[in-house]
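The aim of this short unit is practical: by the end, you should be able to scan a pair of folded records and say something sensible about each. We start with the first protein, listed as its amino acid sequence and then its structure tokens.
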Amino acid sequence: MHYRADYIVVDAKNLAGGVNKCHVLQICNYMTHHGTGLFGIIVTRKGSDRSADQTRREQWILHNKMLLVLSDEDMTQMFNNKAKGQDPATVIRQKVEDFRLAI
């Protein structure tokens, strides 16, 4: 799947709780067809809350914006994959698949 992204917008959040709707909308404002593209990642310690997940679904359905949320666990898995000679991008591909199949 192609997400019309010349660049990947990445935002690192060091939050005590999960990412919420406001955080999702903030990064989605940067994601445009004629700008960075329509693919972004939020890296955060705790993942996302329900409002963020709902907003991510809305952004995907209405605007074709794919925004993933990667937690510390996801990042650790990516580092472990790399250390084992495996492709760390499999974590990202799995997150995309899980997100799309959950809709």
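Turning to the second protein, read its sequence before its tokens, just as you did above.
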Amino acid sequence: MIDKNKQLDFFSLFEEENVSVQQFEVGNRNTQSEHKKGSTLQEKPTMNSSVVEKKDKFDLTTETLINFMGHSYPITDYFSIAEIQHGIEKKKKDEVSYEKITEEDLRKRLEKHFPVLVRDLTTLAYIKKKDLIVPILQAKKKGQLIDSAPSYAIDLVRQKKISFSLFRDFVIVAKKISDKYGSEVHADIYFDLRKNEYFMDFPEQTIHPLWTEVSEEPAVTARKFLDKQYVKVMEIHSHHIMPAIPSATDDLAERTSLLYAIVGNIEDFYPSVTVRTFDIKTNKHVKINVSDVFKSYYEMSPTNQYKLDGISVKRHD
């Protein structure tokens, strides 16, 4: 049973094993217990930080910088000083008015420079203390369909597959959560453009036997990765003891050209895995061979250097 008043440290789940995984906490919302058939879960565990950060008001200045893909761009590259100080000219019939720059105004101008920052996929996180804007790519839920989407995710894995060790780490965490809470879990996989390697993050979320809901504010995500030059590549979640077959909820949620992975049958020695993306033009999901995205464990070197000179090869004639 989960103690409502206690912050659980998931890292303690791994104390008996020599496994290096990301440390995170699980808290519980102060809600009534929920009972599901076939589940011992009595609360909806949440993976989150202990401090709730207040969202900064979107209030640009002439000194505001935009931090994207590891580079900083002055706001004056996109708006004149007059527009920043007095607002953008808006014409309604025969009347002219000046309105304060909104997040969508900035996103539209950024999209001309960065086509990846499409509507319904982009949130602009404003960090007032640093007077900084950080565009965050977030796939939307509930089947929102975007007009266009980036194809860099597939392009990236064609050049460099996601390491098996990263996939293994996700399975280790997902298995522990499945064993203890009978729930799914979600993670995001990014590509660090400076280090030329992938990394994984478990955002703040509520987990449940049948779904997981990411609740992390874009500003929180932005602060976590301020020192990185990165792009988001994949969203991966577990179906714990159920097969890795996309549900109707998955079909509605996974509607951008990011990569989506599902890991199911987590109690099996070899879990089942499904990888796919969404084709905007045909409005259909496209299944992708797992071995085209993740490096296989067969591609790894053995942990020991075994003596193999006693093996002789006899060829077929």
